Amino acid sequence: MVLGAATDDSDYEDSTWEEELAGPAGDMADKEDAEPVTGRPRSQRVNSLFSEDELIEDYYNAPPANGGSVWSDNSPSPRPPAPTFSSSSPGTLSDSMEGTATAQLSPTIKAGWLDKNPPQGSYIYQRRWVKLDADYLRYFDGEKDPYSKRFIPVSSISRITSIGDQKFEVITNNRNFVFRAESDVDRNEWIRTLQQIVEERKSKALERTSISLTINGATDLVDKSGFLELRGFKHKLFVVVAGDKVFLYKNAEDYRLGIGITYIEMNLGNVKEVDRRGFDLTTPYRIFSFSADSDQEKEEWVEAMQQSISEALSNSEVAERIWLVESNRFCADCGSPKPDWASINLCVVICKRCAGEHRGLGPGITKVRSLKMDRKVWTEELIELFHQIGNAVANQFWAANVPPSEAITPTSSSQERRHFLIAKYREGKYRRYHPLFGNQEELNRALCAAVTTSDLAETQALLFCGAAVNCATGDPQCPTPLALAEKSGQRLQMEFLLHNKTSEMPRLEVGGSEEKPYSVPLPSVTHNGFLYKTPSMAKPVSERKGQEEFSRRWCTLQDGILSYYENDRNAVPNGEIKVEEIVCLVNNSPHTHGIESTFEVYIETERLYLFGLESPDSAREWLKSIAKSFVHPRAEELLALDFERIGRLHYKGGLNLERAKEGWFALAGSVLHVCFEDSERQEPLQLRKLQELSIQGDNEVLVLVERRRTLYIQGERKLDFLGWVHAIQKAAGSSGDTLSEQQLTESDVPLLVDRCIDYITQCGLTSEGIYRKSGQNSKTTSLLEMLRRDARSVRLKEGEHQVDDVANTLKRFFRDLGDGLFTRQWGQDWLRATALEDEEAKISEYRRLLGTLPTVNRATLKALINHLFRVQRFSAENQMNTHNLAIVFGPTLFQTDGKDYKAGRVVEDLISHYVKIFNVNDQEMKKQQDEIMAIMKMREAASSGTQQAGDFICTVYLEEKKTEAEQHVKIPATMTAEELTFEILDRRKIVMKEKDYWSCFEVNEREEAERPLHYSEKVLPILHCLGTESYLVVKKQMSMENMLIYLASRVGDCKHGMMKFREERNLLGLGLSTGFHDRYFILNSTCLRLYKEVRSHKPEKEWPVRNLKVYLGIKKKLRPPTCWGFTVFYENEKHEKQQWYLCCDTQADLREWFATFLHVQNGGALWPSETSKVRASRSQQDSRLGNISLIPLRGNESEMRSSVAAFATDPLTLLRNV
Ligand SMILES: [Zn+2]
């Protein structure tokens, strides 16, 4: 329904009653709809559309002679005395605003057609669609009208009475509304329902007298109000912008009564300036053309409405979901309606004013976040936690004993609030004490028990009655309550514990604490004492400073300033550092300088201060105090770490690489902990597991590549950045000679071991005397040194490295390993196990011992024995059977001199019983065997020269992934998906019939998605990119027929429409996505564009089509709203990746989008017109290309990429280089 021209141009004042009846659909102000309360007889019938205006006028004084409606504000007629509003008057604004705020949440309770009483003087009843929800009785022209003609707050209804003839009357303080139902039954049903809702409302209002705000208090909720002209309306309307809605009232009086015409949900709105004073509010249903009194006014209105739109778009999801629980709809502390803030550790929803005071309590007591603005904080778990705990459960504990004299209301002053909140949360004065209160051990024990159950209330009570959140559980597997909760699968307990990791226990403080200034954004830390100090520097401290270079200074940390004085009697400091200027704090390792403990303070202006202390304990106190004083409260989690370096840095990462953000970083051991912007949690980055660590530019950007994520840390300032770079590089390398100190793979095997095993597997399985023959000593030494220094950067290449050198390197690594592979503690037990005569008993003893090894040792042992198991399979060629291998590896792994035969026995047993001891399943075995077979075939081929060395053998499935359907296919560099498909079909003697669209699919098991390869796509590059969770399968493409029909029938080659969009958590694994959202998409031949909505002018996002990979399907874990979805991968030229999801409403829609994607990406053809040609030419092509060197299977990613890319584009260019 869009406002028609007729409506726009109508002269309402002159329109006759009859005309109006049949009038345009666009009018919203209803004919008069209420009987005057006074019952004073109506003097005259009014023929204006706005007869009700007349009515109001009528109510207060006689209608003007012309019968017109004069209800503008500047009416000369005497105004009635302003109605008085007691604070508990049900019709007050506050109630109406509260009601509207939750209107969206309120489902319709009853709806139906009713006749509304005729306007004054008429006898014709008006048929209206009447809707009742918990907040409003509204009526509409029609069933589908989005905008009512009237809304009457339920809270303003005082009575409903039956008045005969199927009629009933809805009575409010000021107006009565008469409706007529079609039958007595219907009428009685309406009366009953209305009465019930009104009763419920009243009892609720009694429970919370606090809702009734004064008018002043409530105006907080209104962003802008005043008179505006609305096209189609003779008189100005009173318009109110409040939160995410715009309300239309006939006049200010109606506004105060709460009875309005309609309200507009701004999540669908769009505001556009039209001329000097005019602007349009556009919704999908109607255009509201407003005109303000001045251009200044207009700008204010436009701004207010635009803000309302952004609020509507931002708040809807989280706030509404939190408010689903009744108790969360009112501030936990003062009872204000519509609270849109929360304390995420206390799990209470609070109003803005209380939130301000909460903040003053400090993050140790309460962590304040907005439901609307801090969206990223709101994970599924946290929202669920607010459903489970929320205001109801929280207050049962925190507000169990509040004396009425101390309770606060929405009108309380900020001082009253502060007093109350300090008593409630800081002192815990009104708590319901846990029976175990005061008994620390019992509390802790009870906490460990509670977190394994779903009883969150118990955990809350224990935690805030003194149980230690990090208490020792006595269970080495799960040392903390958090680990216990995790083991028990109690996600919400985990969430609750996490948010309270740094919470302070409530305690009664001695005197005067309430008068502290709470407005400081950073916790005010006070610390003082003597420190040794050197003059500040502009360069990194590269040399050891002797004790004589330090001077003793009296230092104080107070009110955000670190000052140093000549001595403790001086009043004037020698100098000072503002904590807000501190960017980094470094804890040097002991004895770095001539004073035992030293630390460095870096400030924004590229200077550093070196301080020292003889006592490590005092130094630690200083470090903690300084860190606490400058680290942003949102990064407070970092303070609990035993960091060697902490500070803020600029970074880029995730989906938005345009803007650098500020994050807080702490380095502890080999883990870099990061608090990203907008993120609540700190994220640990395992530096030893990085795939890449490099510096770009002239020491400008540090690039950290983890599996599936890339983080760019920027050198905003040189001094502290260089320090970070060195520290991170050091932490990312091996730190010692034990296993766990090495750089590791994802599966916890030292990278060094992985590299060597890989190389031997590729090149040395058949090498005679492998592991027995010694390599060149000098080469082994230097290789081991290189690998130990940074295995990440070492690539072992055939030709460059000799098999025996590598084998020897691996052996030497194990022989020199600190603590040994079997550990000193358990080594003897392993050796003793060989004495067990019963085979089964021995195996189970090995298995038990395996379980006692540290994770890294266990993973490494398995990788090594697996490797040796493979090696002995080739003993016919390499002469190394299990026994021979055991002789070599026994003394190496047990680091014995070779005289203890038991060491060899252990290794021999481990290899012989590899499958049993390591619990290897058939599938795993099969896969390994296949891999070996493929490698062997390849090598055989290479050495005999009968086959192309460039061929790569891979497993392809027919129709589905199962062993019987496996085919091992040699993939030449030139092979296309179509050729591969034929190859498989040929082998299985399957004849391709017409309209059997056999294709090759790439299936990604992890994403539960698949992608049909385009027939012309080269397979080899795809194989190289396949992860371990992916495989190729040849099967029929069921939707091809339909896609072809669709493409043939459509006009133009783009597609647009709505789809549901969801972003993957960003690349750093942070910022949980909040689900699927409707977005508008346009796909043309070059780009896919995303718009917030249909009418948006600027795309919110835009991706070049060539950089997209579109998969059918979405993993179930993400709970896609329909079963027709895509998973889309995006990768730009810099190899930065994104991943997101799209969902269509129907299968046809999905097919059309997918067809369009394929069409655009492949320049038209989806299916080859003449398949036979391709088949015929294949053999010819092969011979033409001849021998192509093996694509390096190892090598860094970009090397692989460029060589694969070269293949994919033009195989001939590569040939020229051969
Ligand atoms: Zn409040």
TrEMBL record:
Name the UniProt record assigns to this protein: ArfGAP with RhoGAP domain, ankyrin repeat and PH domain 1
Keyword presence, Protein biosynthesis: no
Region of interest (Disordered), residue spans: 1-101
Family annotation (InterPro entries): Arf-Rho-GAP_ANK-PH_domain (IPR052227), ARFGAP/RecO (IPR037278), ArfGAP_dom (IPR001164), ArfGAP_dom_sf (IPR038508), PH-like_dom_sf (IPR011993), PH_domain (IPR001849), RA_dom (IPR000159), Rho_GTPase_activation_prot (IPR008936)
GO MF term set: GTPase activator activity; phosphatidylinositol-3,4,5-trisphosphate binding; zinc ion binding
Taxonomic lineage from the root: Eukaryota, Metazoa, Chordata, Craniata, Vertebrata
Any one Gene Ontology BP term: regulation of cell shape
Cellular compartment(s): Cytoplasm
Organism: Falco tinnunculus
UniProt superkingdom: Eukaryota
